[in-house]
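Problem: given the chain below (279 residues), write out its structure.
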Amino acid sequence: MNQKFIQFERHPGVLLIGWVALALLFQTISFVPPLFAAENTVIIFRSQQIAAYNEAIQGFEEGCEGKNIKIKTIYDLHGDTEEARRIIQMVKETTPKPNAILTVGVLAATLVKEHFPGIPIIFCMVINHDRFNLQGTNITGISSEASIEDQFAVLQEILGPHKNIGVIYDPSKTRKMVAQATVVAKQFDFNLVKTEVIQEKEVESALKNITNKIDALWVIPDSTVITQNTLKTIPRIIREHRLPIFSTSDAIVKAGALIAVSPNYRYTGIQPLSLHKCY
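Solution.
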């Protein structure tokens, strides 16, 4: 596993804030059999216009060079389910059938799987993909998160003898991930201090209740816990208690986390080319 460490910057009165990008060796989730012979045509559906998704697409475009693969069109779904359905239906009715479809982000992956059952689909940039039933004979994909083992290994290096790791989560969304983390934590001699919430408004009080019990806060990709509001609230409370935040999200780092372990997005875009023999 290649790791890229970018220099930490020190800010007055604030804990070190930095970046870690892990170029992960992603694994195939399932296999789509080879179907193509001549020029291979691909269309791309992007869930919305964000930098990470664009980096993944750029990596895919670079990987296609010299491989007899033509990217016909990139469709942006604007992060809106109804607009996405309209665009996808339009593509089905007016666009020649491609040899394969690349989806970027969860919105694109779930809707394309629903509407294109007969075309090979490769998804990427979907965190916790197991939650979204992205399985079938025509679909495969790239895991877009660092393993819990990788995350805790980095955290162990940073925390040293400190062992109490707090995590706030919605059991309806990330129960499985936290259960896995509980097992992995024992391997690192960590004490995982878990707090459940079911609504965004509960996050602030939940965090305040554990700040005196933890040495660091582990922020996981849980849409109940991570919102525009909590991206302001969580760093503020944690700074008041001089605790580090550890995350898999670059957005959390920008909001004030100590460090993030996240995929190399460009490399994520290159990886789909290895999942199909036609490539």
